[in-house]
Amino acid sequence: MVNRNQQHFHRPRNGLPDREVYHTHRCAATGCREEIRRGLLMCGRHWGLVPRDIQREVLASFKDLTGGGNKHRYVVAVSQAIRAVDSVTTSGRYQDPE
Ligand SMILES: [Zn+2]
Q1: What is the 3-state secondary structure (H, E, C) of the chain?
Q2: Is 52 exposed, middle or buried, given 0-12, 13-18 or 19+ CB atoms closer than 10 A?
Q3: Contact (Cβ atoms closer than 8 angstroms) between residue 94 and residue 49
Q4: What is the pTM of this model?
Q5: What is the per-residue pLDDT across 41-87, written as a single tens digit (0 to 9) for each?
Q6: pLDDT in tens, 8-39
Q7: 30 C-alpha vs ligand 1 centroid, how far in Å?
Q8: What angle do CA 93, 95, 98 make, to 5 degrees?
Q9: Number of neighbouring beta carbons within 10 Å of residue 93
Q10: How far apart are the CA of 3 and the centre of ligand 1, in A?
């Protein structure tokens, strides 16, 4: 016997419509579990730790990618952003708020 309720697996969380839940993913920063909108790379807290020139490169390369551009450029920019955040969060200069 098929339970029809099992088909409704995209259950709303945080009062958001299904569509909004579907369009979220995890922050790219190492160990961060923050759920963020698609189109963003990191949560606001981690994105703020990425140097401006790398932020610009991530955004520019993402725009390039969505226009059918070079995926390698975006992957490189993202890995630079993640490394930049890592270097701040593991240096002891930054304390992760609980
Ligand atoms: Zn984050």
Answers
A1: CCCHHHHCCCCCCCCCCHHHHHCEEECCCCCCCCEEECCCCCCHHHHCCCCHHHHHHHHHHHHHHHCCCCHHHHHHHHHHHHHHHHHHHCCCCCCCCC
A2: exposed
A3: yes
A4: 0.68
A5: 999 999 999 999 999 999 999 999 889 888 999 999 999 999 999 99
A6: 445 445 554 444 445 789 999 999 999 998 88
A7: 8
A8: 175
A9: 8
A10: 37
| Contact indicator for 63, 56 with CB cutoff of 8 Å | no
Q: Quote the tokens at residue 82.
A: 């993640």
Cα of 39 to ligand 1 centre, how many Å? Answer: 14
Residues whose CB is under 5 A from ligand 1 (ion)? 27, 29, 32, 34, 43, 46
Going from N- to C-terminal start, the domains of the chain cover 11-89
Query: How far is the centre of ligand 1, averaged over its atoms, from the C-alpha of 11 (Å)?
Result: 24
* 67 CA → ligand 1 middle, Å: 26
Residue 36 · residue 42 · CB < 8 Å: yes
Which amino acid does the sequence have at 29?
A
